[in-house]
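Retro notes (design track)

What went well: tokenization of the new backbones is finally stable.
What didn't: we kept losing track of which sequence belonged to which structure.
Fix going forward: every design gets posted as structure first, then sequence, in one message. First example under the new rule, 428 residues:
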């Protein structure tokens, strides 16, 4: 007898009407027609059961702070940074914890159970670090939260940033961060990449850098990051986030850059919602999209995962903790609307992001952690189209969130009385 069996589920790999048996906090079996009983059963009725969504790039210290101290009138990255600089001295641990916990509630409701959050270390008080370390401990039963020491104002540009970052790591922050394109010079940016990779190698930590988040095609710090990754033996443990300058780079240069990134096994984290909103702001027409070269990076074998980045903060007034919204935008901006394209996009919200974060026990195979979400959609393609309700969210074998199916009542004579949008896709 199992603790929970999910019956008649479709899986992201294309298997259909599969049963998933859960014993304790692990998946005990995945097969068609499991002949066993359980304390509780869920009939998925041919809907998609997926491993939970993963957000490998977020700013939880800023989330839900929209309008504090005022709105971003220009909608630009630089005004957002300036606004955050005004808000930062007023931040309290209590307010930071409250907003972060509220966001985590929203994340759970969306089946988002793993998040990597950058934590600004530019304020020497490190109140952001104290708050997010508390949040990491409090949400551990239901969310895997990783923290990145992020020198928002520049590792060398901001006085005291070097000491603050080291103190944040000493306090227990998980990942070394950086922002080389925000240093005063290109050479300072390259020097910061070298210094931060050295720290990561010495401490045995991963690296995740905001890298080349600009429209400037000459911002090429990802080249330095790949080279230092190889030099310090950090292959597979380094992520380059954003990489928007690659959108504007010369094709010949990129033809040399991508193989270097592949050799270094760089994890790539575009942020489609933010990149399409903030980039190209200085263009008239035609306007650049600003998203990095997702298709080409995937085709080169790099691990590409998508981040939400921001939700209702100085940089982005929208957002809902729904990673399918991120994937939906990626399909449009990257022009990846083919069947196989969409499968890759879905992977970038789940298995690829789990690889970026180094999550143990992630997946829907026997022996994996019993973490999954059942969606009101039959497959990943439909999930990306509909951004459907999460019918059940399960963490370590326990149901921690439910949402009723979205079904409309139709009051038109001669037509069906109920409409379920998840039943409208033609067979392919």
């Amino acid at each position: 007898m199992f603790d929970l069996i999910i019956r008649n589920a479709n899986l992201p790999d294309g298997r259909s009407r599969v049963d998933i048996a859960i014993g304790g906090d692990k998946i005990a079996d995945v097969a068609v027609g499991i002949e066993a009983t359980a304390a509780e059963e869920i009939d998925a009725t041919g809907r998609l059961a997926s491993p939970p969504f993963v957000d490998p790039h977020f700013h939880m210290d800023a989330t839900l702070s929209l309008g504090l101290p005022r709105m971003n009138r220009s909608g630009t990255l630089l005004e957002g940074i300036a606004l955050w600089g005004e808000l930062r001295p007023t931040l309290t641990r209590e307010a930071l914890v409250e907003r972060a916990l509220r966001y985590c509630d929203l994340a759970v409701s969306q089946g988002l159970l793993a998040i990597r959050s950058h934590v600004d270390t530019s304020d020497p008080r490190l109140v952001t670090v104290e708050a997010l370390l508390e949040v990491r401990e409090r949400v551990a039963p239901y969310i895997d939260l990783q923290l990145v020491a992020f020198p928002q104002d520049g590792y060398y540009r901001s006085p005291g940033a070097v000491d603050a970052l080291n103190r944040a790591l000493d306090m227990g922050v998980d990942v070394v961060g950086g922002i080389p394109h925000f240093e005063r010079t290109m050479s300072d940016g390259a020097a910061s990449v070298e210094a931060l990779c050295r720290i990561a190698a010495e401490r045995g930590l991963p690296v995740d850098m905001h890298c080349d988040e600009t429209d400037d095609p000459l911002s090429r710090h990802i080249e330095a990051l790949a080279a230092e990754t190889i030099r310090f033996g950090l292959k597979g443990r380094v992520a380059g986030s954003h990489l928007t300058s690659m959108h504007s780079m010369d094709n010949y240069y990129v033809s040399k850059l991508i193989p270097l990134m592949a050799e270094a096994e760089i994890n790539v984290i575009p942020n489609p919602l933010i990149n399409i909103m903030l980039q190209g702001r200085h263009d008239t027409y035609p306007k650049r999209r600003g998203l990095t070269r997702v298709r080409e990076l995937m085709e080169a074998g790099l691990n590409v995962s998508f981040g939400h980045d921001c939700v209702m903060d100085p940089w982005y007034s929208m957002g809902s903790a729904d990673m399918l919204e991120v994937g939906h935008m990626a399909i449009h901006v990257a022009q990846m609307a083919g069947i196989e394209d969409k499968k890759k996009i879905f992977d970038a919200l789940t298995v690829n992001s789990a690889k970026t974060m180094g999550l143990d026990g992630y997946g829907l195979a026997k022996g994996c952690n019993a973490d999954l979400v059942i969606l009101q959609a039959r497959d990943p393609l439909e999930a990306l189209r509909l951004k459907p309700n999460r019918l059940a969210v399960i963490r370590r074998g326990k149901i921690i969130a439910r949402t009723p199916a979205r079904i409309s009542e139709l009051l038109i004579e001669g037509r069906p009385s109920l409409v379920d949008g998840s039943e409208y896709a033609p067979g392919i």
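Added context from the reviewer: The longest strand covers residues 112-120.
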